[in-house]
């Protein structure tokens, strides 16, 4: 009887123990499964990370190759563009030559020049020379023979700037334009007021509606003529008393390269002489040589243009005097300025070099050099100093 009671007591306990063991085995299997899944995920993540690193390395190599290829393509594009522009220039010149020779040839002959056309051409050339002489007042018969002395009037402003008088007015006012980009002109009553220590306090400030660029501006007959900052080749005519823009014009071919290699801030240099207003600039088509243009200051229009043989290489400034261009050269490291190329537009001197015309007693470069035809002297800006050079002239041979 007792044994039967024990049997009934043990059976439920055993059943309970067996059930618990089964659950433990199931949990262990589940844990093993989860562990295997995590191991699988970790291996896949590790492989993914490795693949990503390989992709990053490949992308970097591809980027380097692409950038190198783009750089070569940019260089090739620039070279090709230069070759195409050079070819276009040569084609245009060839076309002009073809048109010119075509106008001289008879319809039935390729080589023989028609006598009437030749006479007409010579007549037109003579008329053009006569017109230029009348326009430029051939009575201007003196030439620059030397630079006698200098006077440092003041030292004010920075490295770049220009200062001048108005040769078309009777007053003795001095104008100061400091900097290669600015929009304020300082006007002084005379040279003595300018030389005073507190000269900026006594100056009349003339604001401009648009700033200038470079140092190649001039003041003539009450107007300021200057290259407008931010434009390729726009010249502004500004009335100083009315403080308003009177007119403007575009100078064909100008503004793409500096007028002078040693003064890269100046793309268009305006100049005055006994004949009025001129513009000086350089062009790639001329090999960097200086192009000279006569401008009508009233109509703001081009009257005539000359391609000169004077190079802009190692040039720092230039000025006009009696129909003649004088180009000032220096060394890139600075030294003694000298006039090495002279070009007379009427052909009396043609173009020649004269290394003997040195600027006296001074080492250093010039930011601007302007000729005053009324006083026959140069107003120059050199390393922040305002300088006057007196000139020695002789009769043209």
UniProtKB/TrEMBL annotation:
PROSITE patterns: OLF. SMART domains: OLF. Residues 1-21 form the signal peptide. GO terms for biological process: signal transduction. Residues 70-97 form a coiled coil. The keyword Coiled coil applies. Keywords: Coiled coil, Disulfide bond, Secreted, Signal. Disulfide bonds join 140-322. It is found in: Secreted. One of its GO terms (cellular component) is extracellular space. Residues 139-395 form the Olfactomedin-like domain. This is OLFL1 protein.
